[in-house]
Specification:
The complex is a heterodimer of chains A (162) and B (396). With 162 residues, chain A is of the alpha+beta class. Helix content of chain A is 27%, strand content 45%. Chain A has one domain: Nuclear Transport Factor 2, Chain: A. Chain A contains 4 helices and 7 strands, in the order H-H-E-H-E-H-E-E-E-E-E. With 396 residues, chain B is an alpha+beta fold. The longest helix of chain B is centred in the last third of the chain and has 14 residues. Chain B is globular, with a radius of gyration of 23 Å. The two termini of chain B are 23 Å apart. The chains are: A alpha+beta (162), B alpha+beta (396). Chains A and B meet through strand 2, helix 4 and strand 7 of A and strand 12, helix 6, helix 7 and helix 8 of B. Strand 7 of chain A pairs parallel with strand 12 of chain B. The complex binds FE2/S2 (inorganic) cluster and fe (ii) ion (FE2). The site of fe (ii) ion has 5 residues of chain B, from loops.
C-alpha cells in the first residue's frame, strides 16, 4: 500500500475548497479551472448510479462540455431561471492512490440553497463526491468528479453544478 | 334556498372558453373531487414500461392519486398492477421504488403472495374463519392495458378501451416515441419535485416554446413546420420538425444537439395525455414523464429515458448524453419550464382569470383546429376538466 503524503491530502482538500467556493460564489470560470483538459463532471442520482443506469442530471464528459456548462449558466439560462444562493458543506472521507500522481478521493457533501425571493433556506441535496484527481507540478485538478446524490428526488430544478 | 347550500358549486367557470379561473390552481378543496372524478375515474394513467421491469420478479412502485400501487412482471411474462396493500390488515407490501422479488411477503403476519398476486401462504390458517378461502384473498388488481410496452391503469370498468380512449391522433405518434414497436431499454431516471399545482404543470403550450426557451434562439434552432392535434377528451399531440443548424456558435461541443434520427421520424413530438402525463421525443431522446401530484400543492415528476434495442453503441451513447443534458430538472431546454411552474403558481394567488389568446378566434366557441404555436390547444383539456368536475359556466 502506498502511503499518502500529508501534502497530497492537503492538495486534495485545497482543490475541493476551490471547487465549492467557486460554486457558492457562482464563479463559473473558477469552477472550470478545477478541472484539467481530460476533465469530466457528472451529477447523478444515487438510484441510477447504484443500478448502473447512465442517465445523469448533468453529464459533462469532455472538456468542451465543461466549457459549455459555463456558457449555459452564465449566458443561456441566466434570465429565465431564478437565482439561488448555495452553501456547500463537505467532508473528506477517503483517499487512495490510483497510480502515478493520481488519487481517488471521496467527500460527503450537503448543499443548502437560499432563494433570492423568499430568503428561505432549504436543503438542495446530500450525497458524495467520487473523485479522480491528478497532482502534478504541485497543483491538483480533477480528471473526474462525480456528484452522486442520495436525494433521488430533487426538491426543485437545479440550475448550477453541485 | 338554504337547503340547497350543500349543492353550491365550488367554482363558477367563466363564460368565455378562453378563460380559466386562477383559483382552479389554488383551491385546496378541489383535490378530493379531482381524486374521485379524475384519478379514480374514467381515465387511463400510464404506470410502467416493460423496459423498466424486463425480468420476472421485477417490480416498480407508483401512485395513482393518493393510492399506492405497484407493477409486477409475473413468472408468466404478464405485467400486472396491484394495490400496494396486504389483503389481511393492509400493510404496504413493497417499500422500495423498484426491485426484484421471488414473491411478496408481508412482514406483519407473514402472508405470502405470488408474483401473479395469489395468496400462497398464511400461517395458522386453520384457526381462521370457517369459510376462509385463500382464493378470495389475492392482491387487489387494477384494470390494465398495454400499448407498445407501456402499461396503463384505470379504476373504472367504464373507461373505454385504451386505443379508443387515446384516439389515433395520439397513439400513432406515441408509438413512435416508444420506438415504433416498444422494444426499448431503460437508461435511467431523473426525478424532481415541482412546487406547483398539478394542473399548472401540465398547462404548458405551443405559444411559449420559441419565446421562453432562450436556448432555442441562442442555438439558432429553426422552428420547422409543425402542427398540434387535440382530442375532445383533452389529449394533445404536438409535432414539429427540428432543424439544427450545421454550426452552433454558442457551444464548443454541439454534438449534444445532433439529430441522428431513425427513418422518417420528425425532430420533435410532445404528447400530453389527460390528465397529466407528458411523452416526448426531441431529437433522439425517448422520454416518458410519469407525474404524481402530492395533493393540491406539489407534483413529483419522474422522467424515464429509453434507448431502442436495435441502437448501436454510438446511438446509445448519443441518447445518454442528449437526455442527461437537455431535458429534466437541470436540462438546457426544459429547466426554463420548471422555473415557470413555480412562478405561475405564485402569480395565480391573485383574483381573476388566466386568459388564453394565441390561436383563439371565437371566445365563445371551442375550436379543435390548432396551429403549431397556438396556446388554444390547451382549451379542450380545460373544457374536459370543467365537465368532469361539474363546474357550470357563468350565464352568457
Ligand atoms: S397485515 Fe399482512 S399479513 Fe397481516
Ligand atoms: Fe417548454
Amino acid at each position: 500500500m502506498n502511503k499518502i503524503s500529508a501534502d497530497a491530502i492537503q492538495q486534495i482538500e485545497q482543490l475541493n475548497r476551490d471547487y465549492i467556493c467557486a460554486l457558492d460564489a457562482l464563479d463559473m470560470p473558477a469552477w472550470l479551472a478545477c478541472f484539467n483538459k481530460q476533465g469530466q463532471y457528472t451529477f447523478i442520482a444515487e438510484e441510477n448510479y447504484r443500478r448502473n443506469f447512465p442517465i445523469a442530471f448533468m453529464l459533462d464528459d469532455c472538456y468542451e462540455r465543461l466549457q459549455d456548462r459555463v456558457t449555459q449558466v452564465v449566458d443561456i439560462q441566466s434570465d429565465s431561471t431564478e437565482h439561488y444562493q448555495t452553501r456547500h458543506f463537505t467532508q473528506l472521507t477517503s483517499v487512495t492512490v490510483a497510480d502515478d500522481g493520481r488519487y481517488q478521493a471521496e467527500f460527503n457533501y450537503s448543499v443548502y440553497y437560499t432563494r433570492s425571493d423568499t430568503k428561505k433556506t432549504q436543503l438542495l441535496c446530500v450525497g458524495r463526491y467520487i473523485d479522480l484527481i491528478d497532482i502534478s507540478n504541485a497543483s491538483a485538478s480533477y480528471i473526474d468528479r462525480k456528484a452522486v446524490t442520495d436525494t433521488n428526488v430533487l426538491p426543485r430544478y437545479v440550475a448550477y453544478p453541485v | 334556498m338554504a337547503n340547497q347550500k350543500n349543492e353550491e358549486p365550488l367554482l363558477i367557470w367563466p363564460k368565455k372558453y378562453n378563460e380559466v379561473p386562477k383559483a382552479v390552481f389554488e383551491m385546496e378543496e378541489l383535490w378530493p373531487k379531482e381524486l374521485k372524478s379524475i384519478f379514480y375515474g374514467e381515465e387511463w394513467h400510464p404506470i410502467v414500461h416493460r423496459a423498466e421491469i424486463p425480468n420476472p420478479g421485477d417490480y416498480k412502485a407508483a401512485e395513482l392519486g393518493e393510492m399506492p400501487i405497484f407493477a409486477v412482471h409475473g413468472e408468466d411474462g404478464v405485467i400486472r398492477v396491484f394495490q400496494n396493500t396486504c389483503t389481511h390488515r393492509g400493510t404496504a407490501l413493497v417499500t422500495e421504488c423498484a426491485g426484484n422479488k421471488k414473491e411478496f411477503e408481508c412482514p406483519y403476519h407473514r402472508w405470502l403472495f405470488s408474483l401473479e398476486g395469489e395468496l400462497v401462504g398464511c400461517p395458522n390458517s386453520r384457526e381462521f374463519t370457517p369459510d376462509f378461502d385463500k382464493k378470495n384473498f389475492g392482491l387487489h388488481q387494477l384494470r390494465v392495458e398495454g400499448f407498445c410496452g407501456l402499461y396503463w391503469v384505470t379504476m373504472s370498468d367504464k373507461t373505454p378501451p385504451l386505443k379508443e380512449y387515446l384516439g389515433e391522433s395520439f397513439y400513432e405518434p406515441l408509438s413512435r416515441i416508444l420506438g415504433g414497436d416498444g422494444r426499448l431499454k431503460l437508461i435511467g431516471y431523473q426525478k424532481v419535485m415541482y412546487d406547483c399545482n398539478w394542473k399548472a404543470y401540465c398547462d404548458n403550450d405551443g405559444y411559449h416554446a420559441p419565446l421562453l426557451h432562450k436556448a432555442f434562439a441562442l442555438l439558432n434552432w429553426q422552428g420547422g413546420k409543425g402542427f398540434q392535434k387535440v382530442t375532445e377528451n383533452g389529449h394533445l399531440a404536438f409535432e414539429s420538425e427540428i432543424k439544427v443548424p450545421d454550426q452552433v456558435e454558442a457551444l464548443k461541443d454541439a454534438s449534444i444537439l445532433d439529430f441522428k434520427g431513425t427513418g422518417t421520424s420528425s425532430g420533435s413530438i410532445v404528447l400530453m395525455s389527460f390528465p397529466l402525463t407528458v411523452f416526448s421525443k426531441h431529437m433522439d431522446m425517448l422520454n416518458v414523464r410519469y407525474a404524481f401530484p402530492k395533493g393540491p400543492k406539489g407534483i413529483e415528476v419522474h422522467y424515464a429515458y429509453f434507448t431502442h434495442e436495435d441502437d448501436d453503441e454510438e446511438m446509445v451513447r448519443h441518447r445518454i448524453r442528449q437526455s442527461s443534458n437537455l431535458l429534466g430538472p437541470c436540462g438546457l431546454v426544459s429547466m426554463e419550464d420548471a422555473s415557470v411552474f413555480s412562478r405561475i403558481d405564485k402569480g395565480n394567488k391573485t383574483p381573476g382569470n388566466a386568459v388564453f389568446q394565441k390561436g383563439v378566434e371565437d371566445e365563445y366557441k371551442l375550436s379543435f383546429t390548432v396551429k403549431q404555436n397556438d396556446e388554444s390547444g390547451n382549451l379542450p383539456r380545460w373544457e374536459h376538466y370543467r365537465k368532469i368536475m361539474g363546474f357550470k359556466r357563468a350565464e352568457q
